[in-house]
Amino acid sequence: MTPSLESTVCPLCLHNYQALAQHLKRAHGVCNGHERRLLLSMASGRVNIRQCPCPVSGCSYHGTRLDKHLQDGHPELRQARLLNEEQAVRKAAVVCLLGCLRATHPRVAMVSALDLVASTAEDRQVVCEVDPGVVVVVCQMPACVGVRAEHHELTATIHRLEREATQHQSKIKVQARKLRRYQLLVRGMNEGAAGRQEQEEEQRAEEVEQRAEEVVEQRAEEVEARPCRQRQELQRTTFQGRGRGSVMRHLALPPSIEKFLAEYAAYQQGIRPTRKQVENATSKISRVRTFLFHLSAGKSHLTSWLFLNDMPAVTKYASQLIREGKEVTTVKCYLHNIIHFLGYLKDTPPAACRLRRPHIHGVIRAVHMALRNLARPIAMHQLKVKAKKMAGIVSRESLRRCQEQARVVIPELLTRMEDTTNKGISNLRDEFFGYLSAFVISLYGHRPGVLTNMTVSEVEAAKADPLLPTDTGYVITIDEHKTNRDFGGAQIFLTFEEFSWLERWLEVRKRLGSKSQRVLTTRAGGPLKNMAGYMQAVWAHMGLPGRPSFTDLRTAVSGHAKHIHSGTTREKLARFMCHSTATADRFYSLVLDRSQAKDLRGHFEEVTASSSSTTHDHQDSGDSAAEELEDMRTESEAEDDDQ
Predict the structure, then answer these.
(1) Structural domain of residue 243, as residue ranges?
(2) Are 131 and 238 in a shared domain?
(3) If 494 and its partner were Cys, which of 135, 205, 440, 499 is the partner (CB 3.0–4.6 Å)?
(4) What predicted TM-score, i.e. pTM, was given to this entire model?
């Protein structure tokens, strides 16, 4: 048998060993097989303590599930205290068994003396059930030790016989109940109506007994659920807070589950994670954490992962998200992250997981059903959002005025920043970022990440390409942006004059001592995160209506391009701005303004406007079709005759 890779503490010399059985046999000379098995069970902790009394002072529990009682019956104790109490009980149980083995005078001599030496007051309390405050003198003479061992053996025998008697009594009750049923059947067959009446009375008595049992079970469940009320109170506040202060980022789960979530987060980040990928992975883990926390409420033994096999709790979780005010699209994002995590759990389960693959498939199926139920509300929500966006869309006139004013203001800002005596360059830089982003995004409809991720090397590479006599500007290709996997690098074409703005800014940037590789950075050289604020400030300074975001500008460019251009031109514009028209055509085409709806009605009226001419046209087309069909038949018959 291959030894375990995990080291275990020897109970005799208190050193760590991997092959503890071989160590006990060779180093300590433990040749008694029963003694060696007891010492190995003490080292590994695999000792049956279910029927031992509770070691907690003041607790009179003496049942059949001490392990469950320690976890659920003492919520006032910390986890470390409970672990210490459980280990003390296990050690005391093994010491008691060693004493019983010694009392049998085995042929192979015993080596250990754990049952002959009283270790601590706590062990004496567990083994002998003595109060720690009472001093007890224990005689160490061999005769007394043998008497005590015999006493422990007889006590164990009495407990065993009591358990067997209890089992026999339960079996006798079952057989007696069956016998009563058979007697009632026979009596009913012999006595007729009298027997049926007695049978009904017996059934009523059984119903009363069942109701009493249900009441007892209900009260037991209420007692077991008391330690979980505090956890359920925390469950109601799971979705409070935002960002780093969100409650769901600080939910506590068992260490084994936390370790598995850390492995899943590393899998999500990949081998070369960017800052955005790390943030996305953290958000996904937080959503999965809320799912695990909700399903584990009121359950024990979480390290086995069996708490996931609860289909009603999965549906309740989706309903809880909606009750907390989450939009249906956000709930969809949560459920998609959970499905991906469950797939990862199914393919690479942890070592302690006892959840089978069919059970995981059932949980995934329940989450898919919750997603399917959200399909119609999601579609209606997207339509409402699009209608709201199109109602306040930025006009073409505002976009044009923004571009015209930016062309005038940007060179003036650069001239003021190039002045070495000017000390307010920080505010000028923020205005420059706002005007530049408003100009580029109102023109091309790019996402702001295209500008914030633009590097100095990409600007220099655009100028390094040879120019042709017909060229009027440069093309900058930005590799790092949101949809680079689908569209490749995002491109921006700038005329010679517009490209000179970036060149002048890079010279100013060198004078400021910035060492960042990005073109647009903060004062400390970090990535920009307040580009929207800079753009909205200059938008108000230009006197333009509204306070649009970058998404509003992108929607305006895409929407106006849809109504002005069509066919191939629109597809080219969409690909240049790294935008897919499939989603837009699915939702955006259903939202029309008054003039567009009026024009569409005119097309519908054309269908029934000239009914007579349309009828003649159909008749003519039908006659011509009949003539063509007759010619085809004639040609086929001629070919058959030739053959």
Answers:
(1) 234-373
(2) no
(3) 499
(4) 0.47
